[in-house]
Every structure is written in C-alpha cells, then in structure tokens.
Sequence to fold (765 residues):
Amino acid sequence: MSLVTGIIALVILAVIFGLILGFAAVRFRVDSDPIVEQIDEILPQTQCGQCGYPGCRPYAQAIADGDDLNKCPPGGQATIQKLADLLGREAKPLDEAHGVEDIKKVAVIREDECIGCTKCIQACPVDAIIGATRQMHTVIADECTGCDLCVEPCPVDCIDMVAVTPKPDRWRWDLDAIPVQVIDATTSAKESQHG
Amino acid sequence: MADVIQLWQFPGGIHPPERKSLANQSPIRHLPVPQTLYIPLRQHIGLAGDLIVAVGERVRRGQALTEPGLQGAVPVHAPTSGIVKEITQHPSNHPSAIPEPTLVLESDGEHESITFARLEDPHQRSTQELLAHIQKAGIAGLGGAAFPTAQKLRQPQHVDVLIINGAECEPYIVSDDRLMREHAETIVQGIQLLQQIIGRPEAIIAIEDNKPEAIQAMSDAVAGYSHMRVQVIPTLYPSGGEKQLIQILTGKQVPATGYPADIGILMHNTGTAYAVARAVYHGEPLLERVVTLTGEALREPGTAWVLLGTPVAHVLEHAGLVPGPQQRIIMGGPMMGFTIADTRIPIIKSTNCILAPTAQELPAAATEMPCIRCGHCEQVCPASLLPQQLQWLAKAKDYDGLKEHHLADCIECGACAYVCPSEIPLVHYYRKAKAEIREQVIEQQKADIARQRFEARQARLEREKQERLEKHKKAAEAREKALAERAATATRPAVDAQDPVKAAVARAKARKAALQQADAQTVQQQAHADTASADQTPAQQSPQQARVAAAIARAKAKKAAATKQDDSES
Fold:
C-alpha cells in the first residue's frame, strides 16, 4: 500500500514540476544565445574578418559553437585571455595564420589621388568612409576601426594605414617612459631665445 | 576675521617642509616680454576653440586668437602685440610633452593693447551678461585644473556656500599668497561678482594659518562686506584639495561620483576671483598669471606675472637658474608636479609654479624597494583609501579590483608616496592604472559604436537586398500582368468584330493611309524648301542630319588635305 502511495506522490510531483518547467520554458524563453552576446562584447569590433568570419558577431557565434579563441589579431592576447576566462577554456597563443598583433592604425585616403570609385565605401564594414561616385572619398577617422579592408579594393592604391598618434589626454603614463632628462637649462634657454 | 566657527578634519594628511619663505618675501615682479610666445590653442579642460587669426597677421595685446565655436570652448588671447608666425605642433605643457596645436607669436616689442571693453555697472547686469563676459575673457580655473569658470558658474544647482580657495597647501608654492597680499581688494571685487552670479551665497575665503600676511590683507579687505568672511584653517597637506577643503569647512563629503555643487557648494581659486574682477572692471582678458619661481637652483626666486605662452626657458633665464648636475625642472609643486622634459614648453592658464630644486634639496627618486606593509600610507591618505592595496592591484593590472577599491577617488596628492619608507612611486602606479582604465573605457565605447555601425550596415544591406528582391518581384508581376492584358486586348476585338482577319486588314489599311498622308506632307515640305534659298536647306533638316553632313564634310576635307600633302611630298 505504502509503495503505491509513494509512487502516486512521486508521479503527482513529477507532473507538477513538469508543468512548471514546461511553462517556464515557454514563458522565459531566450531567443538568442546570451553567451554569443558576451563573447561579442569582448571582441574588439574591428570587423576586419581576419578570423575568417565576416565580422565579430559571426566569429562570436563560431566561438560559442566550439571554434578556437585565438583567431583575433586586433584583440591580441588580452582578448584571448578574457575569452578563456569567460568560457573556462585554455588560453592559447594567438594563431599567427590569421595575422599578428599590431599597433592601432587608422585608414587615411590620399584625397588628391582618389578617383571616386566607391569601392572602399562598399568594403568598409562600419560605414566609416564617405563619398559618392566620382567624388572624393574620405575616412571618418573617429569611426575607423583600422580593419584594413578598404586598402585592397582601391584600384589606385591611395589608402594608407597610418598609426594613431597619441594625444595628451589619452596618454598612458608609461612608467618606464617618464623621462627624467638631464637638460642643460642655460643653453636650451638661449636656444629658444634665438631659435 | 577668524570667528570661532567649528572646523572639521579630513582623514590623514601630512606636514611636509613648507619652504614657502624662499619665494614669498618679494613682491610679484614682471618678467620682460619674451621674443617668441607659444600659445597652445587649448589651455583648459575641453576642446580647443576655433582659430580666428591667420598666419602673418599682426595681433595686439588682448586680441582674441580663438573663439568659442560650437563647443563653447574657452578662447585664448594674444598676451602681447606681434605677428602670428605660424600655427604648429609644439611640445605641450603636459607630463607627456606630446606636441599640441600651438600658435607661435613673434613679439614686436611694442606691447600695444586693444581697447579693453569693460562691463559698465556690473551690479546691474544680468547673470547671463556676466557669464558671457567671463567666457569671452577666456577665464579658466587658475587653481590648477583649468576648468572653464563660466561653465562652473552656470551649474543649475542651488549654491549655499561659495568657497574661495586660498589654502595653497602644497610646499614651495606662494602664488595665491602673494596675490592675496597685494591685490586683496580686487579679489574681493571678484568674489562679489561670483556671488552675484550664483545668487549671493555666503563666501568663505579659506587660508592656511601659515600665511599671516595674506590673512591680514584679506581680512582688511572683507571688512564691511556681509556674507563674506575669512576662515583660517590649520596647515595640513592637502587641505587645499577641493574635497578636503569642503570637508574642513563644512564637514560634508562630496559624493564620489558627484560634484561639490551637488551638496550646494562651489569652489573657486583666489586667482580666478582676481581674473574675474580684472575682466569685468577693466575688460582685461586672461593674458598673464602669477607663477611662483622657486627652488634653490634659482638665484632670484620669487613670484612673477608671466604672460601665457612664455616658454619655461625664458622664465628660468630671468629667475637666474644655476643648473646643477642632473638639474630637474618641476612644473607645479614638489608633491603633485611633474618633471618636464623640455624647457620649450609654455606657461599656460593652469601653471602655478616652476620649481628648480638642487639635488640636495629634493633628491631624485631613489630605487623602489618592496612594500613592507607598514601601513603608513593608509594613515595619511586624505581620501580614506588603501594605498598599498591599490599598489598591489595596480601592479597586477587588476583593473576591476582597482575599481572596487575606489581608485577613482584618489586625488593624486602624493601623501602616500611621501611617507613611504620603501620609496615606492605610488602615485605613478595610480596614474598609470587610471590612464589604462580610462583607455579601456574609451576603447569599449569605440567598440560599441563600431558594433552599432556594423549592425546598422548589415541591416541596411539586408534591407536593400529585400527591397531589390521586392522590386524584381513587382517588375515580374507587372510584366506578367501586361502580358495577360495584351492577350486580353488581342482577343477582345476579335470577339467584337467576329472576324480577326477583317480587323487586321482594317488596321493595315489605316496605317497605310496614315503613311500616305505623311508622305504627302514631306513632299510638300520638300517643295517648300526648294523654293527657299539653298543656304537654308540644312537648317530645315533635322539637327541629326545636319551633324552627319558636317561630319562627312569634315572627313572629306581631311581626305583632300591628306592627298594634297601627299602630292606636295611626292
């Protein structure tokens, strides 16, 4: 008798929890995979495609599906480490088949050489190039991610990737570079007076 | 003066040797006008204004060189008359000395001024007029941060207390001390104007008790003014820090993420009050400031009115620098200043001191030794932080940990590094870490923008594709419909006329008739043209025919010419 009671009780409980879980699955359904969002958040959003995927978001999806973490040269080792921490995977060194870590750059169009073909505009993943057919194009430097994708399509090779020059308000107080220089103040005073 | 009013204390603080008597014994002097001035276009917190003078133009003393523009920037003015030589990149007055856009002014030695437009009856003027005038005069906070003064005064919060900071707690620096001794009346005029702008709150002029002459001068000047008093505070570094001074005077703490205005307090420097009075009563924009020239390596230490844009080298030359081996030049005081790498850098609105110490006086930083966890730093921190903990975290680059330990509240006063027995340059680590955190925040913002732009572009491409498909579909539908209609019209008359063949014959006849008629017309035209003169004929023809005729004529002429040439050659 007690055996039957026990089974009945368990079956009732199972039905109740099944209903609750079933309801929750419908009610609190998550459309997109939140882990993809989190990975995308860490990726540098250069949209350069060096990983072999057409943008950061697709690569985030690929990582979530099990691809390697070390295919993002713009993010470098720091991004790999963060991804490894997030996903609990091993941080591997950057896969050099996809490129090497480089300093931050920005695209600059040599404007008098531009023929206005709009090819770079079509290549830019973040719409950071403005211009129109047969009109000069220019790069919005603040929006440029330095992805390099506009350089190749340019038929007249008028796009340069230029290293970003540091500004005083974004200077990083480099400890080793704080110069305690020995200056001969009298001569430099005279130099600046005459020169 | 010095009413018995309760004062509070901020945690920590230190008593470094004051060494103020080196420079505060002589009146503020004037330096000769330098041959070349390097005027950075941006000398305040914010963006640079728009340049309104051209290279080669002669400017006079007081003439504006930039205007606020869309950003509402603080303009800079020509401190003397001369020719604008160039606008170039010149080492900036910043620890990094990274070149900044700078206007190079070649002085013509005449020091000729524009007519200064002072504000008549300032006490009858509206707040807006006064603020506009202060903005136009290029005044930024002269205490060191160079925050635009008009912008600070424009804050919407109600202000109960205006604090005038004359504490000047950092060793060596005596600029405010001398200014208060010599120009107390003007400072009080400035304070009155500031009070008027922010709704006449009580003004407290806070001065450390190591400046008895300044206290006396200011007390004499405020006598007879209600809502204004001098408050003497005990000497303790860093009592001149904004948050610390507020705590001393009111016992209130400024919220970590807020501003003093959030608790009804506004603070301005004595130098700023002076500059406001000069701008309003004399129409003089901010052209020069008091700079302390001090240190034992100078033969003639003291204070001086230095034109903004004067290279440090010029100042040092006139202060009689006797450089020792490994001479260091420090911009600012010994606690918070930075060693400069280049004496060409200019004096700007926020420069209050140039310190040239001898090696005995202020030895260069010794080798850093390991932290022994003595805890002295924690006892002197005026912001109640844990300096040694921050140091570990900064070295480990644990930026989340630093945020948790409130690194952002560090005022970089240097008290911790001063007491550290291991000579750890703690503040350097904090500055570095702060810069890294700021950089990460900027990078994150940029990445977010890039993501948005990328996604917007993807959406746009997708939408365009859909639109194209839609268009093709519509075109295809239209084609099909047209075909169907044509088929329908083709069959309908047949049904009507009962005989498609008859209908077709009728149509053909009609066309033939129309053609005949047209022929008759052309014949008539031809006849008409014949009767007209021969010259008019081409004009009567269609332009296309005329062009063809002309081209044929040209080709014939060319051919003829060629044969002629051939003939002559042979």
